Amino acid sequence: MSNSIEIADKLVSQILSGKYNPHDKLPSENEAADQYQVPRTTARKAYERLEELGYIYKKQGKGSYVKDRNKQIELVLSGDVSFSQKMIEKGYDFQSETLFCREINYIKKIYNYLETEQEERVFKIGRLRYIEQQPIALHISYVAKSVFNDIDAVGMEISSMFKYYNSKGYTEFCSKPSILSVSLPTKLQRQVLNCNSFIPLLVLESGCTDKKTGRVLEYVRIYYRSDCFSCVIP
């Protein structure tokens, strides 16, 4: 007799192998219970896990269907164009909400990245990104007040950091070396991104510098919902 995890694994293998195509209907929970010789509650848990992982979706009263994972947003990991501009150019219904702008305590890694002294003030600006009214990414930018003197006053009004840099005379950018990792979301991240603990986050750590002067403008940490994106690394 199989358990719910084993059933979910078997169904994932069938989906990935092409036995089921996007929007194909899966066997009902009763049919799956009979096939794998388990109680219906076990089959239901397997289907719930598949839904949490983004492999299937349900239609009320009709059953479970294979989700089209090929419709994920293609994300090019480059630092010379803003995320907002990339999404708008792709024709998505894009929105951005600024969640906070606050000063941080000294963190050696961030201060070193920004090339600032320990006594300087650094602020972090958090922006939540939406596509089709669904939260998909959390951007946290760290900037030094010595570079942007009014950041504490205008931070909550910033929807695009690149536009803010343009207003300060910085018009050409290049990205510093990036680090891409994967992590499970914290409770707060689950609440903000409206995802569950089974959806890993793609975490991109990078920075932006001014091409002309080489001045470091920001250190950024971005949390992408992995079920919403496919990454392209140039």
From TrEMBL:
CDD domains: WHTH_GntR (cd07377)
Gene Ontology terms: biological process: negative regulation of DNA-templated transcription
A single GO molecular function term of this UniProt record: DNA binding
Cross-referenced PROSITE patterns: HTH_GNTR
Lineage of source species: Bacteria, Bacillati, Bacillota, Clostridia, Eubacteriales
UniProt name for this protein: Transcriptional regulator
Top-rank taxon: Bacteria
Species of provenance: Desulfosporosinus youngiae DSM 17734
InterPro entries: Bact_HTH_transcr_reg (IPR050679), Chorismate_lyase_/UTRA_dom_sf (IPR028978), Tscrpt_reg_HTH_GntR (IPR000524), UTRA (IPR011663), WH-like_DNA-bd_sf (IPR036388), WH_DNA-bd_sf (IPR036390)
Residue ranges constituting the HTH gntR-type domain according to the UniProt record: 1-69
Keywords of this entry: DNA-binding, Transcription, Transcription regulation
